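Q: Okay, next protein. This is Oxidoreductase family, NAD-binding rossmann fold protein from Medicago truncatula. I've checked the sequence twice, so it should be correct. Can you predict the 3D structure?
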Amino acid sequence: MSQTEPIRFGILGCADIARKLSRAILLSSTATISAVGSRTLSKATTFAKLNNFPPTAKIYGSYEEVLDDPNVDAVYVPLPTTLHVKWAVAAAKKGKHVLLEKPVAVSVKEFDEIVKVCEECGVQFMDGTMWMHHPRTEVMKGFLEDGEKFGKVKSIHTCFTFGADPDFLENDIRVKPDLDALGSLGDEGWYCVRAILWAYNYELPKTVLATREPVLNKAGVLLSCGASLYWQDGRVATFYCSFLSNLTMDITAVGTKGTLHVHDFIIPYEEKKASFYAASESSFDDLVTKWGSQPSKHVIENDLPQEALMVTEFSRLVAEIKSKNAKPEKKWPTISRKTQLILDAVKASIDKGFEPVQIQE
């Protein structure tokens, strides 16, 4: 296969998020949709029609048929978290590369099962954290690593909340213990934790301490929670996630010389343009009635939405493996595992009565 040939995706399931990824695959010049499978043929047929699948795409009434299709190179798996191990492992064993929705698993033990099989079968793994692939993310990282303008990072504060409606809080898979047992911690906290790790160059904290009084539903699933993270050298981080508050997705990174603010880090306000604010050597005026200088706004434009850029990068890695016999990129499963480790520690701290939990790789 030449690298110019598009990577052929199969989609396992017709979840809402799969609509967005289907569009992203079609927007990417390096990928195409080859198949979709659902538990019923009628649902898969309707999904393909509503999402403008190419006429060549195969429609299947089971996930197994997608994995058995020789014209599928990779699969996108948007299934509930409790099904990730089963279907990601099954896909890898069939030689399919795996783009897996977050959170990647219910626990790091389950995730390790997935990665082990992916490595044994030589397939690429990547999770579906889209904002990591936005060009703004690289520009912001450049500011964080600028010793003159930002200095050394000392603290990170992240937040992802949205106000879920009564139907969501009663019926969505993210509030069901048998489907997505981590609730808001897995759905929203994943992004917050990833942003913290990203800002700290993926160096794990020493200790995690969950915030007291999280909100749980009657089934025991987290609807709202938070935590503090501590590093040995005195660096700190906090995050808060909730299904019960207004839509907010912030990062505040504070350095010895500068500060970074971003208010839409997970999904930008606009699809083709994103911004952040950077401040350096901030101070007040002489009378302390106002700031001497205000943070500067930086705008980054992009031709493709971040989810299409994610598909493009994943497809590039798959093409390298297929056409050049390259080894799968280990960066992505490593980052996923560290994110999952911290989620596990937050959950453990809650379960232990808000005791500090030591992170062990």
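A: Here is a summary of the prediction. The chain has a mean pLDDT of 97. The radius of gyration is 21 Å.
Q: Noted. On to the next one.
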